[in-house]
Amino acid sequence: MAAMIRVVLFDLDDTLFHHRQAVRDGITAHVAATLPGVDARPHADRWDELEELHYHRYLTGELDYLGQRRARARDFMAGFGHSFADDAAAEEWFEVYLREYVRAWTLFDDALPCLARLAASGYRVGMITNGIPSFQQPKLDTLSLAAHFEHVVTSGEFGAPKPDPAIFLHTCGLFGVEPSEAAYVGDRLQTDAVGAASAGLTGVWLLRDREPTAGEAAAASGVHVVRSLDALPGILGA
User: Fold this and answer.
1) What percent of the chain is modeled with pLDDT above 70?
2) Using 50, 70 and 90 to split pLDDT, how confident is the model at 173?
3) Domain range summary for the chain, segments of one domain joined by +
4) Vertex 191 angle, CA 185 and 196, to 5°
5) What is the pLDDT of residue 238?
6) Domain 7-18+106-236 classified CATH 3.40.50.1000?
């Protein structure tokens, strides 16, 4: 495999960027500021669940991007007996949350060292991320990631999200390589690693902090599994 791979593509959220921690820190701070006396920490799991639920509805086309934000805000605040008068009020609440989320942005400790090692070894590097450019690009700029990537492809701009093979094939085309000459690294088994493998790339599943379920282990049989980005160059031969 090492002789074949010329391009390494990455997911962003919870692969390089510590999205989940920023989400939890952001909602905790937001609730503390807007609902005095309420401890948001017991509700952070519910916010995570609502993100998964409604962002999936966005990816399948059931909701637009702002619609999934409004749905998350409404469902979360309904748990406190609060409802929004209109869409604008829900969006304003979400914008306040976003400011706290942005304040909590961090990279995983292994992100920049991995990118530096790949570059030093001659690999070309790119990114495929589900989302819209106006939301994802500031992360790259703020966290000093942008300069590491030759091409960044967002599902919102391309028109199809991972795991649609089209977005993987499109990105390989931007680099001028065959899918077999590219690897894709992400934290989601089906969306990232299996999706990439189904498109002909080498899929790498980044599983940081838990053991795979029996079903996941079976589904991951056709991809590589790493516990840290520190292990990625070894897989590629970098």
Assistant:
1) 98
2) very high
3) 7-18+106-236, 19-103
4) 55
5) 63
6) yes
